[in-house]
Amino acid sequence: MNKRMNWGACAALIFSLILTVGSRTFLGACAHEDGSFGACHWANQAMFGLGILLSAQSLAALPARDERIRMGLLIAEAMTAVLGMFIPGTLISLCKMPSMVCLSTMKPAMLILCAVILLATLAGILQARKRAK
Amino acid sequence: MKISQLPVRNLTRKPGRTLALICLTALLALSVFGGSVVVLSLRSGLNSLENRLGADIIVVPSSAKSQTNLKQMLLQGTTGYFYMDRSKLDKVIATDGVEKASPQLFLASLRASCCTMPIQVIGIDQETDFTVEPWIEESYTRKLELRDIVVGSQVNAGIGESLRIYGVNCPVVARLASTGTGLDTAVYTGMDTLRLLLDAARDLGHDLKISGDSADVISAVYVKVKDGCSVERVADDLAVHVSKTETVQTKGMITGVADSLAGISSTVTALIAAVWVLAFTLLIIVFAMMARERSREFAVLRVIGMSRSGLAGMIRKESLMIGLAGGLAGIALGAVLVFSFSTLIEQKLALPYLTPSAGTLALLAGLTLLGTTAVAMLASARAAGRLSRTDPGTVLREGN
Question: What is d(CA B3, CA A87) in angstroms, rounded to the nearest whole number?
Fold first, then answer.
């Protein structure tokens, strides 16, 4: 077992990648028959961008040699995850009918993924803090 | 350090092992809580469907079966519209064995953009209705005025807001309680308002396949059969006497849903049983391995004065804490997954789905926690029993 491995950052990277890939595949927004884009499409785009940012932050935190730098990166990632929880439905509105895919699948899945990333980064921060002491 | 703190210290000293045991018990709780909530929600949905349908027979035009699946319309909220002459209502009322008969008129709103789903608009005759009216009266007791609408729980429009249907602004006067069926995605209004909307749709150039005046058409007749009369016989009589119509017996629809529910219930029960057997076996193995690994530690505790029962009690306390932590984690995870994706589950199962009351859920969570903790303690009981019988001197001498 790698003694320097931060398991929180590792888990956060896995879930950030699921968020990024998911927002382009199984967590897509509602289909548009007439080619126009609804608000849920832009919420999905924002989540895709945020997924890339979260993945990059995890990737940067993983090889960091200084635990304080790693901690700083994970704190930034935790705050990004909190921002992600507010995007679908709060900062960017979604469709009106609860039966639509953006409300029935995209929103709950993204909220859960962001919550899991937040928990993973918090675990990573605690691990890094312990090692920094 | 006090001896009572020992179980907590033992668990925190080996976080990896403790986490693995908690994950295993969490899996038990997740499977039983999540599975039970889904099955209970389906049962509530079926009861709700039985209560809400109210009618024994639904008479629809012959063309309706080819255009719309009535079952899908009621269960999943699929939109549809079909029309027949109003004179069919008089023929239905005149049929022997019919106690009550009330017409309904259907219309589907347009899909305007991503955020506007087509909505089923249902016009009811408030004077004779016995299916929707009792449901509306739970939240709105006044008569519906022209343009007033009542929305199902799944329609995202609050009281005081207006829905624009075919260019007509309709104020929402009430929201209905959830039924877990397709009826939740519909909008209800009086016959006069629906005729106004039909005319508005025709003025906008939509072909609703109505020839003549919209006042002369209805979509369906809901029939209540007199007590003591056979529903099958009345349905046959209606099929003979009311031409160009089809009769749908709601009992058959409910039986179909009940059969699907029974199939899903047995599958979920089998899955839960499989997970429990697997996890229980794993827990027994893990506790046995753990006891073997810690045999020297237990022997030292016995040598410094801990009694056999004290040692067994310590193991029981450890398994109790693991059971409680895993149970709570599993219930929390199950609740997050099942409640967040309830709409998706309902859509995928294509069955009525109504989340049980908070009291039922709390009771279920309590029972799950009790069951998970009991299983964890039971799994450790064998290891605790073996350890208490082992001679500490032999263990320390042999160096096991």
Answer: 50
Question: For residues B163 and B157, is the Cβ–Cβ distance under 8 A?
Answer: yes
- Using a CB-CB cut-off of 8 Å, the residues of chain B touching A38 are 113-115
Q: What is the 3-state secondary structure (H, E, C) of A89-131?
A: CCCECCCCCCCCHHHHHHHHHHHHHHHHHHHHHHHHHHHHHHH
Domain-embedded: residue A80:
yes
| Bridge partner residues of B57 (DSSP) | B223, B249
Kindly report the backbone phi and psi dihedral angles of residue B355, in degrees, each rounded to the nearest multiple of 5, phi listed first: -60, 130
| Interface touch A33/B111, C-beta < 8 Å | yes
Query: How many residues in total does chain A contain?
Result: 133
Give the distance from residue B340's alpha carbon to the nearest chain A alpha carbon, in angstroms: 5
Tokens of B295: 């045999």
Domain for residue A48, yes or no?
yes
Residue A67 forms part of a structural domain: yes
pLDDT-wise least confident of A107-121, B80-94, B126-140, B287-301: B287-301
- So where are chain B's domains? 3-48+257-398, 54-250
Residue B340's closest chain A neighbor by CA? A108
* Domain annotation covers residue A31: no
Question: pLDDT digits over B10-63, tens only?
Answer: 888 888 888 888 998 898 899 989 999 998 998 888 888 777 777 889 888 887
Tokens of B200: 């508005």
- Residue spans of beta strands (DSSP E) within B81-158: 84-85, 98-108, 120-124, 149-151
Cα separation of B39 and B47, whole Å?
13
Which residues form the domain of A105? Answer: 7-26+38-132
Describe the strand order of the beta sheet including B220-225 as a list of residue ranges. B162-165, B168-175, B149-151, B186-190, B120-124, B98-108, B220-225, B57-61, B245-249
CB neighbours of residue B227 within 10 Å: 6
Phi-psi region of B60 (alpha: psi -120 to 50; beta: other; left: phi over 0): beta
Mutation target vs A (from B12, B19, B114, B333; most A CBs, 10 A cutoff): B114
Closest CA to B290 of B315, B326, B320: B315
